[in-house]
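Sequence in, structure out.
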Amino acid sequence: MKPSWTRRKSEHGGIVTNFVALLFLVVLCALVYFARHPILRFVAESWVIDEPVPRADALVVLGDDNFYADRATHAAELFRQGVAPVVVASGRRLRPDAGIAELMEHDLIDRGVPKDKIVRLTQDTDSTREEAEAVAKLAQDRHWRGLVIVTSNYHTRRTRYIYGKVMPTGITVSVASARDGDFDPERWWEKRKSVKLFTREIAGMAEAIWELRDVNRRANGAATIELTANISGKVMHNLVTPLCKIGHLRFTPTKCCTIITILSRIRTPATAGDFEMRIFF
């Protein structure tokens, strides 16, 4: 009798536990259902980033603007506020002599940006990462040190992540959020197009994290110090030779020399004695 009574008690306890777990799950689902709108609103609002710096070398309007030209409109507003002296109209090439950059330039001019203050950047790219690489090359060519990237609100977080990984050391990037007529963070779940934009953006973010997982850049507060110096050949030789001896390396003025944890890039003309050295700690 005792084993039978113990078994019935155990079964009774299991039924009660299952009932409590089921009741908790039902209550939790009910809470999520009734609080779904605040939760969805919080998720979208947390996704959007808007942190333009007060002063930069250029505003960069990313291509594939929407029907309302919201990105160009916000870039024109920032230009009138004096954030940057020039605006880059970035966009894909659609035809040999036409593309999205030309359309972006037209939108900017219509919104009050002078044509001579617009830099057209036409590229053959298929992703935000490839566009970021094209922008990085343009910034290096023009010796820009600060950029404000203007893009749609739902696209800001992925943009900041990609540009933070792709941009070379010495170029700071901030992101400006342009309102989007197709995506309202407060009610995005009510429109099919908004849902598609947001879900596609989350998938794109996951893809960007995977593709850039091995990229080691100066992002998220990494401490990188770059020193550039032009030193005479004799001074460079006297500086590097003792260190090379410590590291059992052979120093040749015409070759690149790696010294323990210091990465140096040395360039010298055939007859001149000047070097350019970049040291990264």
